[in-house]
Design goal:
This protein has about 325 residues and is α+β, with helices and mostly antiparallel strands. It is about 45% helix and about 15% strand. The protein folds into 2 domains: about 180 residues, no CATH class; about 120 residues, no CATH class. The protein is globular.
Length: about 325
Amino acid sequence: MPEEVSALRSEHADLIQGVSRLYSTLIGMSYLQHEDVHFAQPGVDVSQAAKDHLRTAGFGEYAIMLCQLLPALTTQLLEKWSWSEDGIRFAPGRQAVSYLVNSVPDVQDMRFIRNGEAEITHNDFKLARCGASVGEDRVYRFAEKSLEVLPLSCDDSDEPQSHQQPIADALRDWRSKFHDLEWIPWSDDNGMYIEKRPMEWENDQADPWSARLMLQLQHTAWQQANLPMAQISVEQLLEQHAERIKAERNKFWAKRRIYQDAGWPEAFDAAEFRRKRDEWNQQYSDVTDLYRYGPQAARYWEPQHGQGLRDIFKTTAGRYAV
């Protein structure tokens, strides 16, 4: 058995090192804490219950051994922040899969690809899974040592809808997006999530007629269906659209600025970052609490109710605001 584990460690070194570096990056960004992650330690075996958990779910022995060599989120973190349909974000639209949790196996989630419900082979396993309605399953193909992207449905991802790539390249790409702050890991009182840089504002600047055409088509469809929302003019829709995409861009850049001002990545002051993050979360909460009894809390594009949030996003984005 030790010889088999040693061979697996060597043959799948790109997977083990890549996932370990990714978790270390998320710890370094104050998204996760050290105590949130179980890192494999030589000579320290996982519990028999965890192995039985995987075996009952239908995993092969090689997959079970390999899973024990990978970092895993702790049961305590998952119980605190995770919901069955969501989980803890590992990347935008993708939730982490933790195989060392002693719970009843969710075969539908652990052994099936949700796009078509096809079962994966016994030594393949998911590194990340899609959410309840959108996202992607990311499957490590044991034999090929590659990562396969299997989307549940089409979304706004800028990546190919279905492809495989060497595992080292895939995980390096993920880390680079965190390093370059194209992906922003964030946490607040509601949970943990990762935001992708919104490109809609940039796209509208490059092609200003595309949004108008899209909204004109939408408005025409409403008119033909005699729907009440057709009473809103195309110009009003354009105004709301512009406010929404500016607000989303400013919100992202406000959070990105907090990372940058704390010195990410070269001289990151984690304590300063957490302090600024808590301050920003409090500002956001103070405004949304004003509307907690109505549906307007996050509708920051609305002329009246959204102004407070739009002001926060623009002010805190500072030099990056639009």
